[in-house]
Amino acid sequence: MKLSVVGCGYLGAVHAACMATLGHEVIAIDTDKAKVEALAAGDAPFYEPGLPELLAEALGSGRLAFSSDIADVKGAQLHFVCVGTPQLHNEIAADLSYVDAAIDSLLPHVSAGDLVVGKSTVPVGTAERLAEVLAAADTGALLAWNPEFLREGHAVGDTLHPDRLVYGVPVGTNGERAVALLDDVYAKTIADGSPRLVTDVATAQLVKVAANSFLAIKISFINAMAELCEATGADVTLLADAIGHDERIGRKFLNAGLGFGGGCLPKDIRAFMARAGELGADQTLAFLREVDAINGRRRVRMVELARDECGGSIAGLRVAVLGASFKPWSDDVRDSPALDVAEQLHLQGADVVVTDPQAVANARAMYPDMSFADSALEAADGADLVLLLTEWPEYVGLDPETLGGVVRQRRILDGRLALDPIAWRAAGWVYRSLGRP
Ligand code: UGA
Question: What's the pTM?
Fold first, then answer.
């Protein structure tokens, strides 16, 4: 099929390349000309494992092209809207201006019978409003919502083999037609075993934010348990292992530590609360405020722990921060817990040196005043305190003796409960973490 993808960020660039790999002819559009040029040359503008190879294959096949001219979508039957919905400045609601602009830009170029497919995460009710925009412009095009569940760092696998496909479609024959078109797009994915669920558009929009809220709840639940473990001398890792054996609970997403960050979970739970308020149901999601608050407290606690370990003040001390991205296998620093902690320590007068295998350039752009190093050993050179804040394998696998050879003081704080306390203490380190004695 001939498809268009509007928006070439983490979602759109991966989606476009994956659709071409599935055999479709894809034109991917972005207003950022530099990004389009990079992608057209096979350069992924962000770090995502497997994407460079996929881009090379898709571009080589001749089925994938990039453009900054929206008129190039002409001839495509399906148009995927993959633009961002970030948090509004000084508000908890989502900024829908990119989604609105994408739909407006498509209007002159879609034909009767085309299907516009929203993939962006939007407040429930947005799809219904956009369907009216398409109808009012007399395009004859239909609108469906097909939320995306990919995780950064696993985006290629999650797109080609998703846990599930959700099609939110209009009622009646228009809906049947939308399902048939989407089934053609995802024929291989479905044949490979991904379940597909057909819903109304409101449910499809809610599925996405409900899923992200549930994940955030799991993380904040275990972090609340970590607070109690700190008050009682218990061990949150053992607690997570023990409750995780219950299949109804499950061990996944129960890793305590610095909590969640990134461009999705934090802004999605906030936008969900804002939307519930608009719908007159603000009490319904009041618990998400607490989920957000618990998450924020972990960062504050980490800074307190650093100060406490250094005798009440970190001013003038050299602090090595291992990790800047919001999680391993990503160079994304949006709402990164690691960088937030690093910035707080920096503001409190510490000489902070941050390192990350992939995210230094993005972190430096956000915090040009902070110091950065290319490796853990370089960052830790002469350090009075080391903080592990993003659990990249190369940091988890660090040898306590080797790192001990470069620091001034063997003191390490484990923000992700990823290190073996016995091994580090045996090598003469003071080891402390959140939620573990
Ligand atoms: C998340 C969802 O997992 C995806 O399903 C969804 O499609 C995506 O948001 C989105 O809305 O686009 P992502 O933000 O890439 O994906 O990252 P996650 O793997 O969910 O991790 C989020 C944060 O939670 C990270 O900061 C991570 O370190 C933290 N986390 C995760 C924990 O603190 N503990 C855990 O046990 C798991």
Answer: 0.97
